[in-house]
Amino acid sequence: MTDIALIWDAALGRADMALAAGDFAMDDGLETAVVISLFTDAPADAGDAIPDGGGDPRGWWGDMPIDAAQQGPTPPDVTGSKLWLLDRAVLTSETLARAESYAEAALAWMVRDGVAQSVGAVAISPALGVLELTVEILQGSTERQFVYAWSLSGVTPGGVMASTVVLDARPSNATFLDAAGALVEVGPNVLRPLFASGAQVGNLVEAAATNWVRNPRAEGAVVGTPGTAPTDWQFGLGAGLSQEIIGTGTESGVPYVDVRIFGTATATGIALNAYLDTNNVALADGQQWTLSAYVQVVAGATPNGQAELHIGEYGTGSAFPGFVIAAPTTWTRYSTTATVADPPYTGADGMVWVFCTAADVVDFTLRIGAPQLELGAAATSVILPPAGSPGVTTRAADTIWTPT
Questions:
Q1: Are 372 and 222 within 8 A, CB to CB?
Q2: Which of 161, 272, 332, 381 is the most exposed place for a label (fewest CB within 10 A)?
C-alpha cells in the first residue's frame, strides 16, 4: 500500500509532508512508518532525565486510554521513541548506544506485527554535535536502509558550530559531500562541512580509517569487448554471458567504471561477480567490517531487478553476508556491515553481485564507483588514493578545537 510520505529534514530536525508534481509525495508506507515510530515522542519513564529540566514526560495523546478505569493507566502499545531524551546529550559511546536502543525499541512493533523479520539500528557521530542513525529493516530477502541525521546541540545549521570549530590538523586528503550531494576532495588540514537536506548541520569530524580497496578510482580499465577490468579488480561472469567495458568517468564527483553484461544465461546463478579488489584483507574474530560502494544500473535492467553488495569471508569455510539493493536505478552509496565469527575467517574481500536464471536474456550496464572496505560498524567518508597511485589508503583523524 502507499501512504503520504513524510520527509526527514535534518536541518530543521523534523519530518514533514512534501509535494511532488503538484500533489503530496507518496511512498510505500514503510519509511513513513519508520519516521513516525522514531520521531514521535514516546513518554519518558519515571527515572528518565528530561532534557530541558522540566517535568513534562511527553508522549502522544492518541496512546492515552479512553476510559482509564477499564483500560488501565498504561496503554498496551506506545507510539514513538525516546530519542527526544537525547536532545542535549553529549555524544559519547553511551549516548550512541542509547540511541540505538531507543530506535530498536520503537521499531520492534514491526516484528511483532509481521511487517518485518528483523529491525536494527546503528548510531554514529559523523560531526561535532551531530547524531546519525542508520535503520536496517529486513522484509523477506530484502533489506531496507534509512539514514537520519540531526544536531543534539541546538546550534543553528551553518551558524555558531561551523564558525567556531577550528581544524587543528588532519595530515591527509579527505572527502565530503557538498550541499548538492556531490563528492568533493580536499587537501590536508581543510575543515569539511557536513550537509543534510542542502543545509549545513555541522562539520565532518572523523577518526582515522583505512580503505583496503586499492583502486576505488577504477583506474586502468580498458574499453572494449571484453575489455579490461580496472587494475586490481576482476569480473566473473555467468555461463553463456559476455562482458564489455563501456568506459570510466565521474558522476557527482564519484569515479566509476561501467561494465555491460549481455547474452543468454545457460545456468542459474551469478550473472556478474565484480570483485572490487583481488587481494584479501586480514581478519580477526569479532571484528566488524563495512563495505560500501556507489552502484547504479545505467542501461537495461538486471534479470531480477536488483543487485547485491557482499563481503566475502574466507578461511575455515566461507560466508558472504551482504545487502540486497532492491532497485539500483539511482546513483547511490550503499553499505553492508558484517561481524567476523566462527568458523575462523582469516581474509575478506568486497563484491557486487547480480543473479540470473538459466535461459534469461541478459543485457544490462552496471556502474560501480568508489568501493570502500574498512574496519568498523559503519561507512565513513569516501577514502581515495592519489590519482594514478592505487593502493591501500588511510584518512588521518581530524583533530579539532573550539575557541572559548
A1: no
A2: 332
CA distance 226 to 242: 7
| Range in 198-202, 261-265, 304-308, 309-313 the model is least confident about | 198-202
pLDDT digits (tens, 9 = 90+) for 12-61: 555 555 555 555 454 567 888 898 899 889 998 888 888 877 778 888 77
CA distance 254 to 36: 33
For the residues 81-107, what does the mean pLDDT come to?
86
Q: What letters, b where the CB count within 10 A reaches 16 and e where it falls short, cover 89-106?
A: bebeeebbebbbebbbbb
Identify which of 238, 221, 317, 331 has the alpha carbon closest to the alpha carbon of residue 276: 221
**Residue 183 backbone zone (phi > 0: left; psi -120 to 50: alpha; other: beta):** beta
Inter-residue contact 274 to 350 (CB < 8 Å): no
Alpha helices in 58-176 (DSSP H): 68-71, 93-112, 160-164
